[in-house]
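Q: How would the structure tokens look for this protein?
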Amino acid sequence: MPISNKSRSSKEMRTVVFRADASVASGTGHVMRCLALADELASAGWSALFICRRLEGHIGGYIQARGHELAWLDCDTALKREVSGAIADDAARTSRIIRDLGKPPALLVTDHYAIDAKWESLLRHDVVKIMAIDDLADRFHDADLLLDQNWLDETLDPYRDLVPAHCLTLLGPKYLLLRRNFYEARQTLRPRDGIIRRVLIFFGGSDPTQETEKALEAWSSFRHDLEADVVVGGANPRGSRVAELVSELKGVRMHVQTDNMAALIASADYGLGAGGVALWERCYLGLPSSVTVVAENQTYSTSEADRLGAVHSIGWHAFVTSSHYRAVLEEAMSKPGRLTAMSLKGMQLTDSRQEKTRSLVASEVLAVIER
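A: Here is the predicted structure in token form.
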């Protein structure tokens, strides 16, 4: 499908701008998947600028620690489409930051459920290309590229009537945005035999529904000789409580805002976690897992992955208790054959059918901005 005929100019910058937010309420997934793309583009000689709101639970320090530039919007409340004037105001603030760069960046990437075609059209003259990352398919986008790595029906394009005719749509988990160490880990992945010795517990960067604590309560309530790695994000406001629970449990280690997630997934035999980006990371490395849906936008992909046999869905978080996690653990330990089948299916769903050190998304993006 052809891309917009707006060509590269010698006056543009080798810069990609990302507009995404992280917070306790919305989690860190939007920023984290943008970071994965930013890292890959940086390795190809491009610089990245993140434009974010300074919300409670932001991970601005982590963005900078990864070597990327960061500009704050002068706002400490979440962007919401239903608030009168909010979209135009956010777009105007973003536009001022981009224009201060002096030259138009080659690409603007949006990853935000409140951003739509109205916002994007207001930035059209400030950038060369626009890419939207979405997984709701519930609004129009004025974009040249669109990524939805959660869409699983290859026979249907849910964005066909929501984007311009020239927009290139990248759909499905084969377009996962992953850090390079995931590709390296997959190439050396050990065969999984379905026997659980080590469990990975991770419910997202902020875990607003406190699933980690429920899982740890379940962990302490039954006899076993398993080990566990518990991961919490820097945006988790209850990290100290999780650390307290972990300190009381034998064989359990806690990791905060880790850069080593690929190794933790590869070394585990089973996972308890949320949907979203983390679900596909586990599938990519063949880790069978039970998934709790902690946000509405995780419902479709979790349900479909469960239907296809790649994960086991526990259901909506409000109906999940520590006793459910205990029952899930006990059942998983008794069904090694089910776990090996789940592992293989997850890897099949995320297989781009090529050995690589760069994602298909990064390859597509580079093909557009470097032409």
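The longest strand covers residues 13-20.

The CA atoms of residues 37 and 177 lie 6 Å apart.

Upvote if useful.
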